[in-house]
Design brief:
Elements lengths: L3 H24 L13 H28 L1 E2 L2 E2 H26 L18 H28 L3
Antiparallel strand pairs: 1-2
Length: 150
């Protein structure tokens, strides 16, 4: 048996391998007349096909495992979706805080004053709370990855 985390690591390795095979195929796709390519594209394509078949198997197994693995009434799929949305929300909030926090200096009193349109302090508190929730959720997902058999 394999743990979910091991399958995720293998998937990441396969994605890197496929990217490398893509580049090697491109590097060997043309050759000067009378020369041989450094690597045989047919062999590289065969290796790529094998890697893609294995990747499909892993993705299917991981997704099915995530859909049936439950924790506190939620599937892993739901937890991962929640984590991804939290990451995006925190990223947008941090960008907004950064933008709203920039000070505009005036050379003369007659110039227009620029003020934040959002409550930076309140938004920072919400961001901090969401970041804590994200850390706890991610830790639980990682724990489940290492304890769930596929």
């Amino acid at each position: 048996m394999m743990k979910l985390a091991e399958a995720l690591q293998e998937r990441a390795d396969l994605n890197r391998k496929i990217a490398q095979l893509r580049q090697r195929l491109l590097d060997n796709s043309q050759v000067q007349e009378g020369e041989d390519p450094a690597e045989d594209p047919k062999e590289l394509l065969k290796e790529l096909d094998g890697a893609l078949v294995r990747l499909k198997e892993l993705i299917t197994t991981i997704n099915l495992t995530n859909a049936k693995t439950m924790y506190e009434g939620k599937t892993m799929t739901e937890m991962i979706a929640e984590r991804d949305v939290l990451k995006e929300q925190i990223s947008v909030w941090r960008d907004l805080i950064s933008s709203a926090s920039q000070l505009s200096y005036r050379a003369r009193n007659t110039e227009i004053r620029i003020l934040p349109a959002v409550n930076v302090r309140s938004l920072q508190k919400k961001t901090d709370d969401a970041s804590g929730k994200l850390r706890r959720l991610d830790a639980k997902i990682q724990e489940l990855n290492w304890t769930t058999e596929i």
